[in-house]
Amino acid sequence: MSADEGEKLFRARCSQCHTTAKDAPNKLGPNLYGLFGRKAGAVPEYKFTQAMKNSGVTWEHDTLFEFLESPKKFVPQNKMPFPGFKREQDRDNVIAFLKQATRKGKDGMWINYVVSVLGVVGFLLYWNWKRSPQ
Torsions phi, psi of 39, nearest 5? Predict the structure, then answer.
């Protein structure tokens, strides 16, 4: 499992609808902060379908693994328009990322902070290199 690969997949296919940081807003889908160990349909201020609320699902690796393959098959009549990740490795990678990014006690934004700092450092190094005599 690779959380880095999972982050790439999440950003490309999930972040349009979901956030992972503490206190981040719900989007088309619910905020995923604190996902592991949470009952499906339990995010405050998000309007879930009755099917999701009554599914009895608790989100753990195994339930997410099955759900992410085919959300509509796992919880019929849920409103998630995502077709799923068909490759097992993709599902494992996204789950590895979610375990890090949604863990309670962390605000989930540390990844964005690190990426921002590295981006600034990279820019400064490039800028200094371009300014130096060749």
Answer: -75, 140
